[in-house]
Backbone:
């Protein structure tokens, strides 16, 4: 089982077509054809684990509202343990990101969310429930979307209590120092550069320098930097490996980082070496960016890509 803790978001997709410009303002008029919801944010990692057949448990916060109830029901459909998903009534709504998409192109996104830090007593309850499940877990993914669940102090507290487990982090640059002593991080090139205090130059030598700096600064075992059309760079503690992109067509990069950390962590947990795990995660990323919206990749799709 892999535990995921972080910021739960509901991804909403308003799909339609555009045939005219509004007479009220110079904006396209989208004729809505369908509205879809998917688990997003940290919960999208759960969707990716489920697609791989990997048991999971989700820890986070939702509001006492209809979207929060929907999150619980969706986790149940994925057979994911949701006993660590706390429902908060204190005017903290479930986070929703709504994307309006026309002809496979995102027209606009609007967010409804609460980003104030979670209360210490709430974080302590999340940790208490997580530690009860830890014995049966092979890894823990800290999925930091910067929405208030994983504050710096809480991150340090969690990492100190997870010694001996694989600790994978999808990071936010503003929390860089709090990831010290994690097993691995999976930032994109812009996040990695900000975390290292360096320019975001997407060239092999420069990315290698960023990876090495983060590796030493945070005392990591693996640093995996995603680089869009340039693929990925893995520093495994000894050398850097530059992995060319596996994407054939790119329609939507939404949630691709969740796929990467889910695959990389799953492969490490089953005993793959870091390079093989990174190569598999790269193939999975190539699959999901060829789909519209928050997507997942199955083993069959990965193997045939």
Residues:
């Amino acid at each position: 089982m892999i535990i995921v803790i972080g910021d739960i978001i509901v991804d909403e997709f308003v799909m339609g077509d555009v045939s005219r410009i509004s007479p009220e303002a110079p904006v396209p008029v989208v004729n809505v054809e369908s509205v879809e919801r998917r688990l997003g944010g940290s919960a999208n990692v759960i969707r990716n684990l489920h697609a791989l057949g990997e048991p999971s448990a989700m820890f986070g916060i939702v509001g006492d509202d209809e979207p929060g109830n929907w999150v619980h029901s969706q986790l149940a459909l994925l057979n994911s343990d949701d006993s660590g998903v706390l429902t908060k009534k204190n005017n903290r709504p479930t986070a929703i990101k709504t994307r309006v998409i026309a002809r496979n192109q995102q027209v606009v996104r609007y967010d409804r969310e609460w980003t104030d830090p979670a209360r210490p007593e709430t974080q302590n309850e999340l940790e208490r429930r997580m530690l009860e499940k830890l014995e049966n877990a092979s890894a823990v993914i800290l999925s930091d979307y910067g929405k208030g669940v994983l504050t710096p102090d809480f991150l340090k507290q969690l990492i100190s209590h997870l010694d001996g487990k694989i600790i994978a982090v999808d990071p936010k640059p503003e929390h860089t120092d709090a990831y010290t002593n994690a097993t691995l991080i999976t930032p994109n090139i812009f996040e990695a550069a900000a975390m290292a205090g360096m320019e975001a130059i997407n060239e092999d030598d420069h990315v290698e320098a960023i990876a090495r700096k983060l590796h030493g600064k945070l005392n990591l075992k693996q640093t995996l930097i995603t680089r869009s059309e340039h693929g990925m760079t893995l520093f495994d503690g000894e050398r850097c490996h530059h992995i060319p992109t596996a994407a054939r067509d790119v329609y939507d990069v939404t949630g691709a980082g969740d796929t990467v950390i889910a695959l990389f962590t799953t492969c490490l947990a089953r005993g793959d070496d870091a390079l093989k795990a990174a190569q598999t995660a790269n193939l999975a990323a190539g699959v999901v960016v060829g789909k519209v919206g928050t997507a997942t990749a199955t083993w069959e799709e990965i193997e045939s890509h």
